[in-house]
């Protein structure tokens, strides 16, 4: 037999090839970083687009600006949009994070009828400041800020009163401001109105656990069962880590059709053209720290339906049928306890947590026909 030499290394790359690969990988990664950075910069001019007339010139009487104002000693940012600044002023108080960037995908049409002020609260988004600790952000402070912003807007636009709108966590602040100083406001509008948020989280937990059992999501069931939400104990941190992703996967999160936090919220925030790159970074810095804020502890240990029920101005509650972020039934229960000169409850049958983004046509109809006229003709019967 003829001996054959077998090259045991014939299937392995040469040392030279390995070196080339090792040198190439960092270069490719660097190129990718530059490309992604360039794309992000291209999507981040950071300036609101002006409203234009038929000739492509700025629309007379309109406003589209990003502004920073000293509110109770802290520079706070807001974006003001209106096709006509003579229209009534509407102050929007956001929830856990500013969500104005969602208007790029979900236009509301509010600026056609109001001068809309998308204020970003201290510690959040445009108003993020690393020197402002989250533990110093309390409901008392945010209510004071809301009233200060209100007075700034009244003076700037020459209005005796404005409209106050809260969404989600912003309703916890907004409804207390409206009850405390009603003379500043025409009406209060609550979208996904909070009341007893601890009970809301328990109901959401029970609902999600049941749904995941029904659809055979064994891993999610196991994870939820290790982080139960009860009325006796503090909400587990492990639940918060699961909460948003689980809610969105079931269509009970930000919108009924949004199935992913990454695709539905994170990526849209990166492609939003009215923020700079730094402002986008700060948006998520503020969000990442909101879980340790004092305000969230207050929200989950307070039942507004037992404390804030008397109002001297009209109150409107707008709720999505699929909302479990702030439970729909609890919103309805709170509404029934409210005493106000006029009050209306409005159900959005195809919405979850954000009716203004999900059903904008119905939302605007309510705002124009009922809210602006102090009526409740379109309210649930």
What composes the largest sheet?
8 strands, mixed
- Which runs of at least 5 residues are low in confidence (pLDDT < 50)? none
Number of strands: 8
What is the count of helical runs? 12
Which structural class best describes the helix and strand composition?
A: alpha/beta
The level of helicity is 40-55%
Radius of gyration based on Cα positions: 25 Å
- Provide the succession of SSEs: HEEEEHEHEHHHHHHEHEHH
Strand content: 5-15%
- The end-to-end span amounts to 98 Å
Shape: globular
Strand order of the largest sheet: 1-2-4-3-5-6-7-8
Chain-averaged pLDDT = 91
Task: Explain the overall architecture.
The protein has 381 residues and is an alpha/beta fold. The protein is 40% helix and 14% strand. The chain has helices at 15-42, 139-157, 169-180, 197-214, 218-225, 237-249, 261-270, 277-289, 294-299, 328-337, 355-358, 360-371, and strands spanning 63-71, 74-82, 89-93, 115-119, 162-167, 185-191, 315-320, 343-348. An eight-stranded mixed sheet has the order 1-2-4-3-5-6-7-8, with helices on both faces. Strand 7, helix 10 and strand 8 form a beta-alpha-beta unit. Helix 2 (139-157) packs across helix 3 and helix 4 (197-214) runs antiparallel to helix 5 (218-225).
